[in-house]
Each structure stands twice: as C-alpha cells, then as structure tokens.
TrEMBL record:
Belongs to the sigma-70 factor family. ECF subfamily. The keyword Transcription regulation applies. This is RNA polymerase sigma factor. Keywords: DNA-binding, Sigma factor, Transcription, Transcription regulation. Residues 19-86 form the RNA polymerase sigma-70 region domain. It comes from Rubneribacter badeniensis. NCBIfam families: sigma70-ECF. GO terms for biological process: DNA-templated transcription initiation.
C-alpha cells in the first residue's frame, strides 16, 4: 500500500486508480447515504476522484488513504447537496441504494435466501425493502453514520476522523440514529400491517 501511495503522489495514474478502487464501494455507500440518489452520488464520486487526484501530491499520510478520500467525498457531497437545494425547489427522489455495477445491496446473501426457499426469499426481500424505506425517511446525517458503521464496517475511531468529531460524538450520533431508524422501521411496518388488513 505504501508503494502505491508513493507512486500516486509522484503522479502515477495507475497507482492512484488502484488506491481509489479499494475505497470505491465505501465511498459509493456514503455518497448514497448523504445524497439519496444515484445520479448525484455518481457525480460526487467522480468529482471526488478528480479532487483527490489533484491533491494526491500533498497527501501527508496523517490518516489512512480511505479516510482521506472519505473526507473529500463528504465535503463534495455536502457542497453538491447545497447546490441542488438552490437548483431544485422540491425534495429529491426517495433513497435508492442500488445502482448499476454497485454492490451495495442491503439484502441477505444468496446462500441464505436459497436455503430457506421461495418463502424465505420473499420474506427477506420484504425486510430489505422495509429497511430501505426506513433509511429513506432518515436525515442524511443519520443515514451517513449508520452506513459508515454498519455497512462500511468502519470503527468509531475512523468515523470520528472522517466526520472530524470526537469518538464520543460518533457514539452519540450512532445511538440517536439507531433510535430514529428503529422508530422509522416500526412506523413503516405498522402502516404495512394496516394496509394488509
């Protein structure tokens, strides 16, 4: 990894592409969490790659490359979100996690679904849709901290570096986001139960 970093700092495009590729899925998930739609997330990811490439010679190594890229991405996402608010008077579309070529599914593994048969697949798919719906009703900051922790599997320490807040603040945000997610999930499930009656 250090060799890739040194080569990328010296302008080696292939080395930079390899570094960026290693962080692409976590970056994609975070962009989706903040922006909530595929087009904006794709724009943010491309812009992040360009900004990171330009800044790579100045990368000091005070943090992991993935953390550094994530910070660039989040600044880009927040800037893009502000721009979109000024451009579009109405709310953007619903939170959509799937994108062509992006392995960011919340659904359980195929092995588990196959083992349980068709009924288990339908149940798992329904649960995944309920989770997506509940996530879609959360604020972007709540989605972000949940995605960083649960989907990208980042430790609290790395999230604190990414978000530039203390580890205690990350734990508090996680706790509050979990509570809001649970409430949104329960609310969505109770509405579906009423419709089924």
């Amino acid at each position: 990894m250090d060799d890739l970093i040194q080569r990328a700092r010296k302008g080696d495009g292939e080395a930079f592409a390899a570094l960026f590729e290693r962080s692409k899925q976590p970056l994609w998930r975070a962009a989706m969490a903040v922006l909530g739609n595929v087009d904006d997330a794709s724009d943010a990811l491309q812009e992040t790659a360009v900004k990171a490439w330009r800044a790579m010679p100045r990368f000091g190594g005070r943090s992991a490359v993935g953390t550094w890229l994530m910070r660039i991405l989040l600044r880009t996402c927040y800037d893009l979100r502000q721009t979109r608010k000024r451009e579009t008077p109405c709310a953007m579309g619903a939170f959509d996690i799937d994108a062509e070529g992006a392995d960011v599914s919340w659904e359980p593994s195929a092995e588990r679904a196959l083992a349980g048969g068709a009924q288990a697949r339908d149940s798992d798919r329904d649960e995944a849709l309920d989770v997506r719906d509940a996530l879609g009703r959360l604020a972007a900051d709540d989605r972000l901290v949940l995605v960083l922790f649960y989907v990208n599997d980042f430790p609290v320490r790395q999230i604190s570096q990414i978000m530039n807040v203390s580890e205690g603040a990350v734990r508090t945000r996680l706790s509050r986001a979990r509570d809001r997610f649970k409430a949104a999930y329960r609310d969505g499930s109770s509405k579906e139960a009423e419709v089924a009656r």
